[in-house]
Design a protein that fits this description.
The chain is an alpha+beta fold. Helices cover 20% and strands 34% of the residues. It folds into 2 domains: 5-62; 69-248, Umud Fragment, subunit A (Ribbon). It is built from 3 helices and 17 strands.
């Protein structure tokens, strides 16, 4: 069990609920009625914060959770400083903190941008794109993908111009990749070292890669993502802030991710 913000919210909800509820039960046992004027300070705080903390816990656990992009591994789709929303229920309803799925819903599709718990350190959240589904045969040679024997089409969009904290990717080749029906941009640094492989994705696992192909720590290096590590699907940029570029990136706010 990881001690994270969800854990803090759960504890805060339980503690404030017990304090407030216990006080009401105490009044009832004495035959007294609730009066704000005579309310102890601790109970007043508990009564005020309990509904707020509970609502935030429910929203983050079952609907949507905000994340900030800290690195350039998903450039050019996601930039350093983007703030995104992640759909928490699309891959099934999970209990907060223990992350146990209680209701089955959809499964990840090839091309989805997913947030997941890093298999080597579940306390850390990663974001990558789903490249391979359970049972898929993935090949990566000469910086090109082949999935189940089908070569994935790439069309050059020219030289990439990085900005702000992603400026070091200036000069990379920007390619439009058609991931069996899902088109998205990727970056390739021609001449940069890479890893080549042929791999079959195990059942119950997903193969994930960053769109910034030569600058991403992903399944090529540490293996597939187990289904139980999934957090949710990224779907929306609600804020973008890069102090090294232009501050608030108003042109990115409201972007629907694909």
């Amino acid at each position: 069990m990881d001690v994270d913000f969800s854990f803090f919210l759960l504890v805060a909800s339980v503690v404030t609920g017990i304090i407030w509820g216990g006080y009401l039960l105490l009044l009832k046992s004495k035959g007294e009625t609730f009066d704000e004027k005579n309310e102890p300070v601790l109970v007043e705080y508990a009564r005020s914060f309990f509904p707020i903390v509970l609502i935030v816990l429910l929203l983050r656990s079952f609907l949507a959770e905000p994340f900030r992009i800290p690195s350039g591994s998903m450039m050019p789709t996601l930039l350093v400083g983007d703030f995104i929303l992640v759909n928490k229920f699309t891959y099934g309803i999970r209990l907060p903190v223990i992350n146990k799925k209680i209701i089955e819903l959809n499964e990840p599709q090839r091309g989805d941008i997913v947030v997941f718990r890093y298999p080597k350190d579940p306390a850390v959240d990663y974001i990558k794109r789903v490249i391979g589904l359970p049972g898929d045969k993935i090949s990566y040679h000469n910086k090109k993908l082949t999935i189940n024997g089908t070569a994935i089409e790439q069309v050059s969009l020219g030289r990439y111009e990085g900005v702000g904290q992603g400026q070091d990717m200036t000069g990379a080749e920007n390619l439009l990749e058609n991931l069996t029906g899902i088109e998205h941009s990727i970056l390739i640094r021609n001449g940069a070292p890479t890893v080549e492989f042929d791999y079959i994705v195990p059942q119950g696992n997903y193969f994930a890669m960053g769109d910034n192909r030569d600058n991403s720590n992903d399944s090529r290096y540490w293996g597939p993502v187990p289904e139980e590590n999934l957090v949710g699907k990224a779907f929306f940029i609600w804020m973008s802030w890069d102090w090294q570029h232009k501050g608030v990136g108003f042109d990115r706010i409201g972007t629907v991710l694909k």
